[in-house]
Amino acid sequence: MTNNENINELETLRSQLNILKKKLNDQTIVNDQLLRNAMSNKMSWIMKYIWFELLALLPLCALSFMGIKLMFPGMPWGPMVCILLLVAVDIVLDFYLNHTSENDWLAENLVATGHKLIRMKKLRWIQVAVSLPIAVVLFIWYGFCFSAETDEVMSMAMNIGMIVGGVIGLGIGLSVLVKMNRTNDSLIQQIRELTKEEL
């Protein structure tokens, strides 16, 4: 075999190796993109839920209080406005605490994103620990104001309704919170496996 043939064979091998490397790189990029999309999509239901709070829950609360005010004109605005403000502040905090961007899912940012997800879980529990006692106080205030404007039977019915509704609402809220934190746990585990970092 001549030198020229050896050189040609080497060039052919080098060319094939470059093609193989390019295919592997392209495959890695595609897999990386798919993984980032999958991780981002796991968080998307949380943002949909928060938009539901803003576009459905808050207006429904406002309409309910307007209806009560029309039926009982002597009912003071104070407790109703404060409850609506609490709901609005909680929704704003939900947007802030649960926000993730495309940059969060880039390969070089995954460790920082893992720490962000851990912090997000802690802040959610702090939010509940602060807002729940405030909500209880506001609804007790609301119940006293309502009792002052209605007869005993109507007052009893409203108070029972508030207690039952509060327990159901608390159960739903806690189940959503637990589901959010499980989503975070799943993503944190994936990040640990990918980065080999202990978060």
Report on the structure:
The chain has 199 residues and is mainly α. Helices cover 87% and strands 0% of the residues. Helix 1 runs antiparallel to helix 4 (152-195) and helix 3 runs antiparallel to helix 4.
Uncertain stretches: none
Strand content: under 5%
Average residue pLDDT: 85
Give the N-to-C terminal Cα separation: 58 Å
> Which structural class do you get from the secondary structure elements?
mainly alpha
In angstroms, what is the radius of gyration? 28 Å
Give helix % range: over 70%
Gross morphology: rod-shaped
- Strand count, sense and closure of the main sheet? none
- Element-by-element helix/strand order: HHHH
Secondary structure blueprint with pairings:
Layout: H1 3-71, H2 77-97, H3 110-149, H4 152-195
Provide a compact summary of the structure:
The chain is an all-alpha fold and 199 residues long. 87% of the residues lie in helices and 0% in strands.
Overview features:
4 helices, about 200 residues, mainly alpha
